[in-house]
Specification:
Number of helices: 14
Structural class: alpha+beta
Strand order of the largest sheet: 4-5-10-7-9-8
Low-confidence stretches: none
Order of helices and strands: HEEHEHEEHEEHEEHEHEHEHHHHHH
Largest sheet: 6 strands, mixed, barrel
Strand content: 15-25%
Helix content: 55-70%
Length: 397
């Protein structure tokens, strides 16, 4: 087997007649390396975007939400029962409201929470503008795009209206004066343009039947116990469990499909490079036609000749994939550390182009590149194995 490797390597990369390296073989290896590097980097960039989006979703959305599905659901009692078994829960509600400023109206989703300061603390670096003084009246948190469209800054006064609570006795919707306490920016359109936060004290003045729609939020701490917690919460009567994953199933599925689609398309780069490898091995057969015939005459069987060219495909695949993975890893690690490639702005403006290196991607790309190169070597190997030794020995170049 050792002689097979030596002979296959020499036939692939060395041109005896010209006393020089086979540049076509070098180009084949380089093409596989370039395709592998591009594929590794592309998948790492998609991983980085995915982590950024997931991070924003986890920061903006609550981990677990219990929503009432019957009139028997009692948020206070359920929260107390959960606290007894070590599961802290906070009251929570959502309601469509209209926000009015001097520049117009906007329909928004209001998230109603016990304490706005906890939301500000959880959002941390996403707060773009915040009041530095104690507001008079009720405060709200709004997204940056919503604030921009309404011409609002922290400290500005707005009016909130609840059109869903119009009654026949009074067709005027309930209204509430409020002040913008802070502006948050996640760089995600759905968040920054369509949400505001309001505390329960203010919401009770605006929404008469608020107590009937109060749910519970539960923050998880990660780990293996989360599955058990979800299973336990799903057993609660009169409540429906909702998670941030179920709320954004379409987005998560789309991102996974985008990654798979991008990987499949970029594999074509490696596939094109393997065509060059096939051409190189076919040229090798033509140049070594007589030598292959001599090997057959000396007793080398078809399997041995076929193995020589399959080894050549393996050499191209291993060398090209190793170089490509190394190059992609160096560029990726450099971007992670030095951020020399700028990001597209918005959600990714702070840290440059996001990249997340995963060893599984490196392994899958390496295996795929090697398999494609082995597949590319199958046709030349079959042709070489079928050479007639008598005709090849008498062949004159």
């Amino acid at each position: 087997m050792n002689s097979s490797w030596k002979l296959a390597r020499r036939m692939l990369i060395w041109r005896q007649e010209r006393r020089s390296l086979s540049w076509s073989a070098m180009l084949s290896i380089g093409g596989v390396a370039a395709g592998t590097a591009v594929l590794v980097l592309s998948m790492s960039i998609l991983n980085g975007f995915e982590q950024q989006v997931y991070g924003s979703l986890r920061q903006f959305e609550n981990d677990l939400i219990l929503l009432p599905v019957s009139k028997r659901a009692d948020a206070g009692k359920t929260a107390a029962d959960l606290a007894e078994i070590g599961i802290p829960a906070q009251q929570y509600a959502e309601r469509k409201l209209v926000i009015k400023s001097d520049r117009g109206y906007r329909l928004v989703m209001a998230r109603i929470v016990p304490d706005l300061s906890q939301v500000v603390e959880r959002f941390a670096g996403k707060i773009q503008d915040e009041m530095v003084y104690q507001p008079t009246g009720h405060g709200i948190l709004i997204g940056a795009l919503l604030a921009d469209k309404l011409g609002l800054f922290a400290g500005d006064q707005v009016k909130l209206l609840s059109p869903l609570d119009i009654s026949l006795a009074d067709p005027t919707p309930p209204q509430l004066e409020a002040r913008v306490q802070a502006v948050f920016q996640f760089g995600v359109l759905d968040f920054d343009d369509a949400y505001l936060y309001l505390d329960f004290e203010a919401a009770l003045r605006l929404i008469p039947n608020l107590r009937q729609m109060v749910g519970l939020t539960i923050e998880t701490v990660g780990g293996s116990d989360n599955n058990a917690l979800v299973a336990e919460l799903e057993q609660l009567a009169d409540w429906q469990l909702r998670t941030w994953e179920t709320d954004h199933t379409d987005l998560i599925t789309a991102m996974k499909m985008e990654k798979l689609g991008s990987a499949a398309v970029l594999l074509l780069i490696i596939l094109v490079a393997t065509f060059n490898a096939t051409s190189t091995m076919v040229m090798t057969i033509m140049e070594k036609y007589r030598e292959i015939g001599i090997l057959r005459s000396l007793g080398a069987g078809k399997r041995y000749i076929k193995r020589l060219f399959m080894i050549q495909g393996l050499i191209v695949g291993v060398a090209g994939a190793s170089m490509g993975v190394a190059l992609g890893g160096i560029i990726g690690l450099g971007q992670v550390r030095y951020r020399f490639i700028p990001g597209p702005g918005g959600l990714y403006a702070d840290g440059g182009l996001p990249i997340a290196l995963q060893w599984t991607d490196f392994a899958l790309v390496t295996v795929a590149a090697i398999l494609l190169c082995m597949l590319a070597a199958w046709y030349p190997a079959r042709q070489a194995a079928n050479i007639d030794p008598g005709q090849a020995v008498n062949y004159q170049k």
